[in-house]
Amino acid sequence: MFRYLLIFLSLTTWAQSPFVKKSVQIDTASDSLKVHLLSDLCYEYRFVSQDSAILFGQQALELAEELDYQGGVAQACNDLGIIYADQAESDEALSLYNRALSIRKLQNDTMRMAAIYNKIGIVYQVLGKLDSAITYQFRSLDLYEAKQYDFGISYALNNIAIIFSNRGDFENSVNYHLRALSIRKQLNDTRGMAASTVNLGNNLKSLGKLDSAIIMYESAIPLLEDLQAQNHLAATYNNLASLYLDQNNLAEAEENLVKSLDIRKQINDVKGMISSLQILANLQLENKQFTAAKKTLDEGYQLATANHLYSSIANITLAYIDWARATGQFEKGFEMALSHIQYKDSVTNENTQKTISELQTKYETEKKEQQIALQQAEIAEQKAVNTQNIVIIIALLLAVIALTVILLLARSRSRKKQALIRQELEIALKEAQIEAAISSQEKERSRFAKDLHDGFGQMISILNLNLKSLKEDYSNRDEVYEQSASVLDEMYAELKGICFNLMPQSLIQNGVVSAVNEFAARVNLTGKIAVETDFFGLEKRLSDVQEISFYRITQEWVNNILKYSDADKVTIQITRDENEITLMIEDNGAGFDLDSLKSGKGNGWRNMNSRANLIKGELEVDTHLGMRGSTLIVNAPVVKEKLKAEEPAYS
Predict the structure, then answer these.
(1) By the 8 A CB rule, do 343 and 313 touch?
(2) How large is the C-alpha radius of gyration of the chain?
(3) pTM score, two decimals?
(4) So what's the pLDDT on residue 149?
(5) Domain with 73 in it: what CATH number?
(6) DSSP string covering 125-154
(7) Is the per-residue pLDDT at 261 higher than 50?
(8) Taking residues 261-278, what's their average pLDDT?
(9) Domain final position from 44, 75, 107
């Protein structure tokens, strides 16, 4: 299993590295320690060789599975998930994180659960699924707060703030960044303080609060200097320069730009240097320092062309055009305008197009002054042509107006037709839902009648025969009594089962948590499959419609798993936060074709969708052929309780 470790022993350049030391330790370590050493190597190779990191992680996972060492399995899945997340393989990362999470839940390892929730939230953020991302970050925050782990709390708050910023909700983002910054100051977490302060500056800038943004950026500078974070320090100086430029404070803008440029030259940040040079050139043009601006633009243009940064070339050529217009260097301006067109497929800015046209006209005028006399002779001839062109243009305009009217009428007609089609589809959908509900009711009635007939019919016949036998022979009354009592017990058990299927008393009396737990216990009694349940935020009961809908969807989906899947484990989770209730059912069975389920003849899929629609919820299923495990998710809004008006008291 560890034959690949010999590779490292042959690499003399790494002889003293911690990687090789851990590799050597593996040969003499106990089995469980080997798992942790391999997982450590997986994580530590993250920034050295991701292929090697994955190899170590897979070896750790295989050994942990072979030893049935669940803690090792969870750690290996966690570290492998980080590597796959780095490689933007989100599905693989989420699968590994969720496997690690299920083990940590069984171990009740709250701190590691919080860390995994954090990582899952980051993956969803990268995927652009911001609702899921913020849900998992809040779960992480709740667990860290329960443990009063300030370091974890600050990073969960920071991630929540970033998600709000991605949503464009900068006010909320600022509030969460301030909470994170307060904790990080108490912890003296310099790196975290720097990140929060810069993020606050970015959000305040987006809100148009420029003075506050400047204060934040300036507060971040000494922190970044302590950390020697040169890239971020240069970017912060650049941001400050932009803000001062917006405030027309040219002196401060230039001072910060020079600082940014010096740092970027030291670390050879070519793109950053070009950005700073372009802003500096604009500032110099504002100050009418045309010679300095030309020198700055030349430096930026040479850097961009040497490094084949075409978008930067296009931006700098636009700045050249401004310089040429200000200095009257029309030939140079026209040359740069052509260069701009070469490096940018189209120029959408109308003002830029106008400037290019003006420069071209002036340039050609300067070169052809000697031809003016000849052109004046041609003007007279051109006037006649222009008159004819005007007539043609008027005719074309009338044709365009007529065509526009026709198109508008056709568009209006098309919209009405689409609205009618949409209305017909909605009616058809409602009819299908009604049909599914009626069909479901008839199916339930039929099954109920069959249960009564097959179960109670036979037992009543037996009871009747027992009672009749007393007429013929009264001496065996004790035996008849015992048999009749046994039959009555069976009838009671049968009746109790039928009643549970129709409407569990636990659902009516105690709510969906009690009913789902009772249902899971009944399924577990079969011994064929293990059903686990997990509930968050359900201390208060849901509305009647929500409880019945979530219970029936759970009952239908688990019954489908029992019928068609080879799963041996099912997890049912219902969580509620401030705005949303989520039902998630996961199994480890074989995946299936979801389209086949949707287009099937049975009513199960339609019934579940009808239940979800009834509570204004959305139903999603994650599965496909060839994958292991399926997931059903239902998200529904929380029903806000209406406050009753207080009635006046009477004495």
Answers:
(1) yes
(2) 37
(3) 0.48
(4) 92
(5) 1.25.40.10
(6) HHTT-HHHHHHHHHHHHHHHHHHT-HHHHH
(7) yes
(8) 84
(9) 107
